């Protein structure tokens, strides 16, 4: 049943590369086979609840610019918001959606009331999902907006805040399991510090480790078969966050014995804030065996903050999906659009057009990545570059069968005089651009 918010906008169809329709797919064809698998099953698109249906269009220097009929702190408004959200999911034909607890229900006067409202909305979602709505890619808890979390949630100096956050996560995990969510995400939010003058880093890291261990234990206790994901981010809103980037998160997981239990949800915009490329974070996560899911957005390279814009760079998308495919593709994870309209993009149609463009960029990147893999366009030169390590002596060094002295004797005996070989970076960059 139409809410009327999107007017007469019809479900978005694939019309091919020659289409000039802004509300049609030019590259995303859900049933197209890529490396023997449906494109929809590769990309596993999800639309996020918070930016699309909660964000009012504010920024650090100005307030609300969006006027939405569901804005308001009542359960009636929350259900209208859900009606519009699921209508948009249907128009776009996405297989998944994502949400925070705070996105879908108004805050209650107590913890118990907030949980009751969340469960009521979960019942409402369940009806829509059983009637052909999308599945839940992941759920998460908002542990950063309420003033109680101004000094963090798990890392808060007040144990009562730690406990309240833990109880909130439990409720959200219960709902995520009930809705057959395929993952559960923890984003640090304010798990960091503003100044070291009032911060005990060792204590706070141990609190965070204990919190995450409790989450993992509870996952197994309730039989939740999804993946627990941590989303790295270096800063903003805090000066420094403990989940700075993929490498930092992996070190944290190793320290607390959780590297086999938890993976990462990598956001392109957060990678940029950390001084990395999206490609770097994905490649590192894949090499460490913790690549779980991605948030596909971008930052403005001229801004020093998280602008959460829709993706529009096909070469970047191609390299991102190249590493996803090389790692075996998504299992429980997918491509979540953690992206929001610009505050001047006021029309309902803008919500649809933004996602259509982003989905097309991802599809174009996926197809380019698949062709590069089929042609060994990047893996071939890579194998050639490291071919020397397949030799017997090289393998002996790697396997610990040579001491430092023995290696030195080998160099002297064979009169080794290795010469540098071109890395061919520019040629490889040109290869990528040929496929996009």
Automatic annotation (TrEMBL):
Span of the signal peptide: none
Name the residues that bind Mg(2+) 2.
267, 270, 306, 308
Q: Which GO terms describe its molecular function?
A: xylose isomerase activity
The UniProt keyword set, sorted, is: Carbohydrate metabolism, Cytoplasm, Isomerase, Magnesium, Metal-binding, Xylose metabolism
Gene3D superfamilies documented for this protein = Divalent-metal-dependent TIM barrel enzymes
Catalytic reactions of this protein? alpha-D-xylose = alpha-D-xylulofuranose
Q: Does the keyword Cytoplasm apply?
A: yes
Q: Which domain of life is it from?
A: Bacteria
Q: Which cofactor does it need?
A: Mg(2+)
The enzyme's E.C. designation: 5.3.1.5
Q: Active site at which residues? A: 100, 103
Q: Would the keyword Metal-binding be found if you checked this record's keyword annotation?
A: yes
What InterPro entries does the entry give?
Answer: Xyl_isomerase-like_sf, Xylose_isom_bac, Xylose_isomerase
Q: How is the cofactor bound?
A: Binds 2 magnesium ions per subunit.
Q: Where can this protein be found?
A: Cytoplasm
Q: Where does Mg(2+) 1 bind?
A: 231, 267, 295, 338
Assembly, per entry = Homotetramer.
Question: PANTHER family from the entry?
Answer: PTHR48408, XYLOSE ISOMERASE (PTHR48408:SF1)
UniProt family annotation: Belongs to the xylose isomerase family.
- Protein name as annotated: Xylose isomerase
* Organism this protein belongs to: Chelativorans salis
Q: Which gene encodes it?
A: xylA
């Amino acid at each position: 049943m139409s809410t009327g918010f999107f007017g007469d906008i019809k479900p978005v169809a694939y019309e091919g590369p020659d289409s000039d329709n802004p509300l049609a797919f030019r590259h995303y064809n859900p049933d197209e086979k890529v490396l023997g698998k449906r494109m929809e099953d590769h990309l596993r698109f999800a639309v996020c609840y918070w930016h699309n249906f909660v964000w009012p269009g504010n920024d650090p220097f100005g307030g609300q610019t969006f006027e939405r009929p569901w804005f308001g702190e009542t359960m009636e408004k929350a259900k209208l918001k859900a009606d519009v959200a699921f209508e948009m999911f249907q128009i776009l034909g996405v297989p998944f959606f994502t949400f925070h607890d705070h996105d879908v229900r108004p805050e209650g006067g107590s913890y118990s009331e907030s949980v009751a409202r969340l469960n009521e909305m979960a019942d409402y979602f369940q009806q829509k999902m059983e009637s052909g709505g999308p599945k839940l890619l992941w759920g998460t808890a908002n542990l950063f907006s309420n003033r109680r979390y101004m000094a963090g949630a798990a890392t808060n100096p007040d144990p009562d805040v730690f406990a309240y956050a833990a109880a909130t996560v439990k409720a959200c995990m219960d709902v995520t399991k009930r809705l057959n969510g395929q993952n559960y995400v923890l984003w640090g939010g304010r798990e960091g510090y503003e100044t070291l003058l009032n911060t005990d880093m060792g204590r706070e890291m141990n609190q965070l480790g204990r919190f995450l261990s409790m989450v993992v234990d509870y996952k197994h206790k309730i039989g939740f078969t999804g993946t627990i994901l941590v989303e790295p981010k270096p800063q903003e809103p805090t000066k420094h966050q403990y989940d700075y980037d993929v490498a930092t998160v992996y070190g944290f997981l190793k320290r607390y014995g959780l590297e086999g239990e938890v993976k990462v949800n990598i956001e392109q915009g957060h990678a940029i804030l950390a001084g990395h490329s999206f490609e770097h974070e994905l490649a590192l996560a894949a090499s460490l065996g913790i690549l779980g899911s991605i948030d596909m957005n971008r930052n403005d390279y001229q801004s020093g903050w998280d602008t959460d814009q829709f993706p529009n760079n096909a070469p970047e998308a191609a390299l991102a999906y190249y590493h996803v495919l090389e790692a075996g593709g998504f299992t429980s994870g997918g491509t979540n659009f953690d992206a929001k309209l610009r505050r001047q993009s006021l029309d309902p149609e803008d919500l649809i057009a933004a996602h259509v463009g982003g989905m097309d960029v991802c599809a174009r990147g996926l197809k380019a990545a698949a062709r590069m893999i089929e042609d060994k366009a990047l893996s071939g030169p890579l194998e050639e570059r490291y071919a020397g390590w397949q030799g017997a002596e090289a393998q002996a060094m790697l396997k610990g069968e040579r001491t430092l002295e023995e290696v030195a004797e080998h160099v002297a005996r064979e009169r080794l005089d290795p010469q540098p070989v071109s890395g061919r970076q520019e040629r490889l960059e040109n290869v990528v651009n040929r496929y996009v």
